[in-house]
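Tokenise the fold.
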Amino acid sequence: MKYFDYAATTPPYPDVIRTMAEIMETQFGNASSIHGYGERANQLLRRARAGCAAAIGVNPEEIVFTSGATESNNLAIKGTALRYCSRGKHIITTAAEHASVYESVLQLQQWGWDVTWIPVDSRGVVSVDQVISAVRSDTVLVSLMHVNNETGAVNPVGEIGKQLKQKAPRVLFHVDGVQGFGKLPVSPAQWRADLYSLSAHKIRGPKGAGLLYVRSGVEITPLLSGGSQEHNFRAGTENVALIVGMAKAMRIAGERQSDFSRRICILRDRIMEIISSIPELQLNSTKEGAPHIVHFSYPGMKAEVALHTLEQLGCTVSTQSACSSRSAEPSRVLLAMGRDEACAAGGLRISFGDEHTEEDVAILEKALQQMVAQLRPLERRM
């Protein structure tokens, strides 16, 4: 079975697994305790914080460890809204965001916040001018993803951050960076981002670990109370083994990013050519997108039928993002891009990892051709 769903989750690096196992076996102390066990755990935590900070070019004291990007995004959005509601109650985002951002903003909207939903174009990319034009005197936060988790569309977050701070320096800028780190160059500080979210298991680290970069001077209201951990932004005993595993995965992914992008772009371009050559399939991603994600649709065919057919042929892909893939609803992201419901209901995502080769793409090519041949008689009946 060939696994082409790295945007959903990734197999941890062997070094990450070994490191976590060693720490779980020998360093079980609580990093908040002041005895020797706690101090040794705290030293590991400090080193991991410095490693994570170095990987994205920020200061260690600006790193807040969380349970993953869903918590990081919730903390960034709701924590900012609660802390700065005296400035106003207006948020800017798009309809193509990951569910953890989209639903956090929807919840604030239900609580009385005004939300401007910026459209995306047919490529899934947001317009800099539209974002900046939407900023008002009562705007508190702009929240955008760097790379779309379904289509791989890359937003111009650097230019948006630059123009946002020129127009409204006090408006906070949050970037959901989950699908960008390790695949594209990343620099929250240069982007003028105030908040930046990451998840370890998307970069061959462990599940259950993530971080939120909080720029020095920015304050957010904690969503979890009960302790002074993580600079008072996130209460709870830190999972040292997972955090150290994340730091190691970030170091490896960061060091390999340039080579990964160069090599995987070749595979991505090849599979895009293959998909474009099959009349029944419709490509939704572009070559200007991230190197590791290719999204296409089989209009008139239910996505889960196509997915399971490919699985029977030896290739694992996904439908929508993993958080939404069990939903039978058409993709919200594709609808936002102007695709019709047939296209949005028949979407499939291929996502590559650093282990994939040209031979794997050849196997996937054969599986795609066989899938269409098997399902062609069922078209429009689904």
Notes: The chain has a mean pLDDT of 95. The two ends are 26 Å apart (CA to CA).
